[in-house]
Amino acid sequence: MRPLGEHVREIIALEGPITVERYMSLCLRHYYATRDPLGADGDFTTAPEISQMFGELIGLWMLEVWNGMGRPHPIHLVELGPGRGTLMADLLRASKLLPDFRAAVRVHLVETSPVLQQRQQATLASSGFPVQWHARLEDVPEGPLLLVANEFFDALPVRQFIATERGWCERLVGLEGDRLIFGLRAEAEEPLGMPLRIGDVLEWPSLSIDIMRELSRRLARGTGAALVIDYGYWGPAFGDTLQALRKHARVDPLAEPGEADVTVHVDFHRLAQVASAQGLQPHGLGTQRDFLLALGIEARASSLKKRATPAQSVAIDTALARLTERGDTGMGDLFKVLAVTHKGLEAVPGLPPHS
Ligand code: SAH
Questions:
Q1: Please, which of 158, 166, 235, 327 could form a disulfide with 188 given CB 3.0 to 4.6 Å?
Q2: Are 322 and 254 in contact (CB under 8 A)?
Q3: Is 353 contained in some domain?
């Protein structure tokens, strides 16, 4: 296949510099459509790939919330960007505890990558559940909804604006000779309603907002909850969070278009605002650490260790530490958890009330 870099250069040569959003979008589509990027041999690892405990605890969370919703039947269980399908497989296994839930569940996976869709099919073949795939959330049938999105929103493109003496100018990707470079649109945007300090970078996640709005509309019309877990912060904040990972190491996002995983940090405040505007109740923000501890990850690790070999016990402890440790060594406080529910669901497990 022709390298995406050639295609991107051609577009810029013909049409002029493109927005960061369009660049990210071209890169991400190519990247996910052409490989399974997860795991030790890939470019990055996610929580469900680190340990089965992650998906199992999310399964328990779903059971409790479903109880709190009055046990609707059927219930649409939706995952956005399911990767290898590991989280969903672990979640469904944990749902054995509640046969009524299993009878009510309709599984829907929203996935654009044909490669990962195949992978999900293989992972879930033995789950005992029929699975429906959709390219967009809009295609999932309406009705009571439980949704999970882990490391999904960070994989969606954003526009970037930089504060200059002229005002907010959109950041672009252009060409210098044969090399891709960042630049700025000459004309300033309409004021973005934000204070302006020269050099500040504002990220605008249009697609995340659209998806969150669609999700919120569905929850507001019906009942249910969505759980969003990602590398992110409670905004507003200003900074360039665009980064690219290849083989677990940071690389220049412009160096090999479509060959590295490009991500941004998620602004949870913006997602919560979209949900509140549709009349939903946000819960959290919490850290992944507090969330998993509250759901009982330590007890789950102990019970797994009872049936484990010494080597497996070490692996369980290592996974527990990676998922919950604070600071740069773990995912414990870098990753955050936000839930949004229909009004009336006053509390959800593992998350503080929204303040
Ligand atoms: N949730 C998984 C995988 C995270 S990687 C895990 O935790 O392991 C991001 C996932 O989102 C991949 O499955 C990717 O193919 C999918 N994806 C990226 N952009 C998408 C889009 N616009 N719509 C649907 N899925 C998308």
A1: 166
A2: no
A3: no
| Residue 62 CA, ligand 1 centroid: distance in Å | 20
Q: Give the pLDDT of the chain (355 residues) as one tens digit per residue.
A: 789 999 999 999 999 999 999 999 999 999 999 999 998 899 999 999 999 999 999 999 999 999 999 999 999 999 999 999 999 999 999 999 999 999 999 999 999 999 999 999 999 999 999 999 999 999 999 999 999 999 999 999 999 999 999 899 999 999 999 999 999 999 888 777 777 899 999 999 999 999 999 999 999 999 999 999 999 999 999 999 999 999 999 999 999 999 999 999 999 999 999 999 999 999 999 999 999 999 999 999 999 999 999 999 999 999 999 999 999 889 999 999 999 999 999 899 999 988 6
- Residue 283's domain comprises 37-156+207-234+264-341
Phi, psi of 124 (to 5 degrees): -95, 0
| Residue 108 within a domain | yes
- The ligand 1 atom at the shortest distance from the C-alpha of residue 261 is 5
Q: In terms of Cα–Cα distance, which of 191, 193, 343 is closest to 281?
A: 343
Is the dihedral angle over the CA atoms 215, 85, 128, 122 positive or is it negative?
A: positive
The tokens of 253 are what? 């996002």
For residue 216, the domain's CATH number is 3.40.50.150
In a domain, 30, yes or no: no
The model's pTM is 0.97
Question: Residue 87: CB within 6 Å of ligand 1?
Answer: yes
Q: Which of 21, 152, 158, 229 to mutate to test the pocket of ligand 1 (most atoms within 8 A of CB)?
A: 152
Q: Which atom of ligand 1 is nearest to the CA of 149?
A: 1
**Residues, the chain:** 355
Domain count, the chain: 1
CA of 108 to the centre of ligand 1 (A): 14
Whether ligand 1 lies within 6 angstroms of the CB of 120 is answered as no
